[in-house]
Specification:
By secondary structure, the protein is of the alpha+beta class. It folds into three domains: about 80 residues, Elongation Factor Tu (Ef-tu), domain 3 (Beta Barrel); about 140 residues, Threonyl-tRNA Synthetase, Chain A, domain 2 (2-Layer Sandwich); about 90 residues, Diaminopimelate Epimerase, Chain A, domain 1 (Roll). The chain contains nine helices and 20 strands. A six-stranded antiparallel barrel has the order 2-3-7-6-5-8. It has a five-stranded mixed sheet with strand order 16-17-18-20-19. Helix 2 packs across helix 3. It is elongated. It starts with a strand and ends with a helix.
Length: about 375
C-alpha cells in the first residue's frame, strides 16, 4: 500500500520513490509508487498534478487502497524516480480548503448549520449549508474567519484511536467508525477530512465570501482564499480603476457615477421612445385610408412598439404589416387587421419568406429570413 507523505507533512513538495507498477489505459500510463506526496482527488479537494522524473502527472486518484498517478509517459517498474508536485496549485488548494473548514466551523458554532455540500474549482469554493444566513450574518462570519487567520492559529491533523474518537466532538457528513482523520483549527473547528491543509491559519492570508444564493433549504456560498482571493482582488481593482478613468471620477465615487450614468441613459431612452412614438404617429397620419394593405419598415422597434403601431395602422387599411430589422439578420414582423383572419395569411407568408410565428386572428407576430425586396415583392 502506498505510503502517503502528505499525511506526514502537507508541505512536502518533492520526494524520491520507487515505481511499484505501470500500466497503460486509454492512452495514458497509470503509475503506482511505494510512497507519494501527490494527493488523489477526494472529499471535494482536487487531485494534485506535477512530474515524476521526465513524465507529467496529469491526474491522481485512489484505487483499491493505492494512489494512482495518471501520466503522459511510462516509467519502468522497480525504477527510482523523483517526484515534484505543482506546489503553487497544491498550496492554493490547501489555503482554500482550510479556509472552508474555518468558515464552516464558525457557521456551525454560530448557527448550528451543517455543511452539506462542498466543491473546490478554479473559480472558487462552493459551500452549501442547510440553513439560511442573511448578508449581515455572513459578513460577521467572514470577519470572524479572517480574525482566525490573523491569530495564526495552529492547524493539526491526526488519526485518533477509536477510544479517542469517541470522546471528540467533530463535524462529518458521514457516519465514520474507523481510519478517521481529523483536522483541527485551534479554537474554531474539528472536522473529519482526508485532504492536506496548511499548518497555521496565517498561511491562508485572507478569506473572502463573494456571493450567497438562497436555496430551498439553506444557502450556497462562493468564497476564495489566499492567492486566488488576491488575484481576484487585483482583477476587481483593475476594473474599478478602468471604470474610474472612463467616468473621470475617483474610485470611491464609482458607484455614484455609474448610478448617474444609468439614470441619464434611462432618461435619454425615455425621451427617444417618446420621439420615436411621435414620429410613427406623424408617419401614420400622413397615410391615406385605403381598402388595400399598408406595409411599414421601421428600424430598431421593439415588439411592443411594433404591436402598438400595427394596432393603430389597421384603422386605415385592410391589413397593416410592420417589419423591423435588416437584410442581413432578417426581419421581425407584426400583422394587424380588423377584419381578416391573419393566422391563414401569416402561414402563407411564413412559407413564402422562410418565417415562423403566429398569434390571434386579429394580430400575429413572428420573423422572416428574407430581404426587404423579397418582402415587398410578396405583398405586391
Amino acid at each position: 500500500m502506498t505510503r502517503r507523505l502528505y499525511y506526514e507533512d502537507s508541505h512536502v513538495r518533492e520526494f524520491d520513490a520507487q515505481v511499484v507498477s505501470c500500466g497503460e489505459r486509454e492512452g495514458a500510463f497509470e503509475i503506482v509508487l511505494d510512497k507519494t506526496a501527490f494527493f488523489p482527488e477526494g472529499g471535494g479537494n482536487p487531485a494534485d498534478t506535477g512530474t515524476l522524473g521526465r513524465v507529467k502527472v496529469l491526474y491522481t486518484f485512489e484505487w483499491d487502497g493505492e494512489v494512482v498517478h495518471r501520466c503522459d509517459g511510462p516509467l519502468p517498474a522497480g525504477s527510482a524516480v523523483h517526484g515534484a508536485i505543482d506546489w503553487d496549485r497544491r498550496f492554493s488548494n490547501m489555503q482554500n480548503h482550510s479556509a472552508e473548514h474555518i468558515v464552516s466551523g464558525i457557521v456551525h458554532q454560530r448557527h448550528g448549520f451543517a455543511n452539506v455540500g462542498f466543491h473546490m474549482g478554479e473559480d472558487g469554493v462552493i459551500v452549501d449549508f442547510d440553513g439560511f444566513m442573511d448578508d449581515g450574518e455572513l459578513s460577521d462570519v467572514e470577519r470572524e474567519a479572517n480574525e482566525a487567520v490573523w491569530r495564526n492559529a495552529p492547524v493539526t491533523a491526526w488519526f485518533p484511536s477509536p477510544e479517542e474518537l469517541g470522546r471528540i466532538a467533530y463535524r462529518s457528513k458521514l457516519e465514520l467508525t474507523e481510519n478517521v482523520r481529523l483536522v483541527a483549527v485551534e479554537g474554531v473547528d474539528v472536522c473529519a477530512c482526508c485532504a492536506p491543509h496548511v499548518k497555521r491559519t496565517g498561511e491562508i492570508g485572507v478569506i473572502k465570501i463573494f456571493e450567497s444564493i438562497r436555496r430551498k433549504n439553506g444557502v450556497r456560498l462562493r468564497m476564495l482564499a489566499g492567492s486566488r482571493a488576491y488575484e481576484d482582488y487585483v482583477k476587481r481593482a483593475r476594473s474599478a480603476a478602468d471604470i474610474s478613468a472612463l467616468l473621470s471620477t475617483p474610485r470611491d465615487g464609482v458607484t455614484q457615477a455609474v448610478e448617474r450614468v444609468l439614470a441619464e441613459r434611462d432618461a435619454a431612452q425615455f425621451k427617444l421612445t417618446g420621439l420615436r412614438r411621435q414620429l410613427l404617429e406623424e408617419k401614420l397620419a400622413a397615410e391615406p385610408y385605403t381598402e388595400g394593405n399598408l406595409i411599414f419598415f421601421q428600424p430598431e422597434l421593439d415588439m411592443r412598439e411594433m404591436q402598438s403601431f400595427a394596432s393603430a395602422a389597421r384603422e386605415k387599411c385592410a391589413v397593416a404589416a410592420v417589419f423591423s430589422g435588416d437584410d442581413e439578420s432578417g426581419y421581425r414582423y407584426v400583422l394587424a387587421s380588423k377584419s381578416a383572419d391573419l393566422r391563414v395569411l401569416s402561414r402563407d407568408m411564413n412559407e413564402a419568406l422562410h418565417g415562423r410565428g403566429g398569434g390571434r386572428p386579429e394580430m400575429v407576430s413572428g420573423s422572416v429570413s428574407a430581404t426587404r425586396e423579397e418582402i415587398e415583392g410578396y405583398w405586391r
